[in-house]
Amino acid sequence: MEVGPYAGRPFPPPMAVPPARPGPWPVVAAVLVGCWTVAVAVPGELVGWLADQVRLATGLDRVVWLWPVVAAVTVLLAAVPALLLALLPRSGAVRATGRAWLAGLLALGALTGLRALPPVHHEAYLAALAATAVLLAVVLPRLVRGPAPAPAPAPAPTPPAANPDRPHDPDAPAGPAAPAGSPRTVPAAQAAVTWLAVAAGLATLLPWAWFGALGGLLETGLAAAAAAAVGVLAGALLDARFWAHLAGGPPHRPARLVLVGGLVAGVALLLLAAGTGQSGAQLPALLTLPPLGFALAALQAPALRAGGSAGTAPVRWLVGLAAFGPLAFADPEEITLLLAATRDVPFWVAVAAAAGLAVAALLAIAYGVLLARPRGRAPSRPVAAATAGVLLAGAALVYLGPGQPGLHGERLLVVLREQADLGGVPAGGAGQAGRDARAREVYRRLVATAERTQAGLRRDLTRLGLDPTPYYLVNAIEVDGGPAVRAWLSRRPEVDRVLLSQRLRPLPAGAPTSRGDQPAPSGPAWNVSLLRADRVWSQLGVTGAGIVVGSSDSGVDGRHPALAGGFRGGDDSWYDPWDHTRAPTDQGGHGTHTTGSAVGRDGIGVAPGASWVGCVNLDRNLGSPARYLDCLQFMLAPFPAGGDPFTDGRPERAPQVLTNSWGCPPIEGCDPAALRPAADALDAAGIFVVAAAGNTGPYCRSIEDPPATYPDVFTVGATDRDRQVADFSSRGPVPGAAKPDVVAPGVGVLSAMPGGGYATLDGTSMAAPQVAGVVALMWSANPALIGDLERTRRILRDTAVPAGATYASRKPADACGGDANIAGAGLVDAYAAVSAAR
């Protein structure tokens, strides 16, 4: 007999007990770990790149272990919190977040370590990046994969109306019944969103097609392979399991998926971006890849709403295309602080990255509105495919129109074993006539050796379409080609070695011409007076008349009022191997300034009565072994515009003195002996060669880039107004030579700039042309001294006055073996040198 309140009545249905809602702490922990991971990874990449740049700017050797250490520190600091996040919380979404970030950190560590490869071997780096990314895509999911989300129960034939007040587990799996494992793919939704992912990837490429430029054919192909491999790796990290956990449900919340899933995916993509590309190339990827996480999350919404997954194809396509931009359209060696002062490659890379960031943000908004609305759905496959086609056509038009179409890879300089024998060149007597006879004989021997030894190799190179350009000053040939051509050439018996001849990629717009903002001096500049050159003019009546100084630099503004009257003129006084200009011009300003310090009028030049000829061997402040040879050949035997250096050279028109405010470091392709035959030939021809010591002091042994290291080149350091050697002035000792030879004013030197103005600059670049001007004064005062290089050097050293040596510290090692390795013979004294020469 039943008793109680329900006696005689049926029992009520049992009350549903809602599953326990996870607390907020796992989410808080995920937010903190994500912020910590970003705070560790981004500064690590910036610090590593800046360390690379500082060592490059100061002339120190590249540290091979730098990037592996940066990778190890980043992983050690961030991996433990990510691992705890992957193991401890009960929330499946939080654990999936931790697993994705842990895998991203491991990928960052492995990929960043590849930067130990030298930047000059970019093709080898890209190949290693592609192989490593594919290997990681296979291995990482097996290491960090968590349990698959449990399949959702099959929907009832007649589902009841949704109860908005019913709680649900936000981490429950989504969709209808599926086999154990990854959520099933919905073919219709996948096809549409894959095409939308392709369209989004092409949209991110638009800024790079506009502002960037491709390298060589092999380099571009390997960049495409590396980008595709990075896309595959991203698909392995952000796979169907990841998106199923982040989606939650049922019921699904597309807005939550875009916001939360986009943030989590963005951090994972940031870690991938940090490891993608050589030092410098990863910086724009850090801006453009992470925001694409929101677009990827939105692309998952239609398939998840249909009860399945969009698969990894959208992730692979979008990330792969986005990574292709910085990998292929920018040379990491040109993303450098050395070019940051003007609107050069770093500027345009920043513009492309900022535009890519804006595109990624627009994609996130557009795809979120289109796909993640409560009733949103992907467009049909034909519409999505047509969208991708339109963007592909747009990218092609941008690349062929305002972009820089074509391939702009590096070239190779093939140095032959046999160099010309210049021993026993007849002296030819003293003075200009003797110098000219020596120059003619040197030119004859150099050309004859090159013609005889290069003939067979040049035929083979021409037959292969490698566009050979022969040189005689160094018996060498510049050709197109990558690693395979380099290996083939290195095995030929007549070849000594093969160097990279760097080539700058073109810019979408030229940098503005550097101009001065100071007026002309009212009298002799302080540096001219410190050298006592003004006393040579006034008391000895010598201004350099009859002497020609050759300037190999960024060019010369031939219309500047301080330089126009000194141009020698004729059809063989100007050569521009970069842009083939027919009249003296200068975009960078460096060459105008240095030429003004040597022969400029109005008080800025040491030898205002001398004439000048010019050649452009620097473009945007960088050069290559071949461009340096172009100008040195022109200085030995000038030839008319469009002429052949081998047959049209005029050695009797060679300038008597050369000023060279440049050096050829390994990053430009030179090895220590690259230009040694050229320096020997100019010396044998009786041409006085002056070179700047470099600006990598106060470190000892910092005179290390040719031609300043060669014994037959007169190397000049820099001092300030107080006759103290400037801290930046490079020092010896140099093996086999006493360097620097002398010092000259190089701090706050006023000289000409393009456009008629003047500017004050610092550097040994400013000091070297003043010594060239002193030599012009000496030879003008005593023409019999022309071509007598040894006596001229001895006079310059013997008449120099003491200059104060400076040191990096008080440690004995910083004394560089003696003050002579810091200040040379001392500060040049023009008055004393000219008096001794007379």
From TrEMBL:
One of its GO terms (biological process) is proteolysis. Residues 149-183, 506-525, 575-602 are annotated as: Disordered. Signal peptide: none annotated. Residues 544-805 form the Peptidase S8/S53 domain. It comes from the Bacteria. GO terms for molecular function: serine-type endopeptidase activity. The active site is at residues 553, 590, 765. The chain crosses the membrane at residues 25-44, 64-88, 100-118, 124-144, 192-210, 222-244, 256-275, 281-301, 345-371, 383-401. Keywords: Hydrolase, Membrane, Protease, Serine protease, Transmembrane, Transmembrane helix. Residues 149-162 have a biased composition (Pro residues). Belongs to the peptidase S8 family. This is Peptidase S8. It comes from Micromonospora haikouensis. The lineage of its organism: Bacteria, Bacillati, Actinomycetota, Actinomycetes, Micromonosporales.
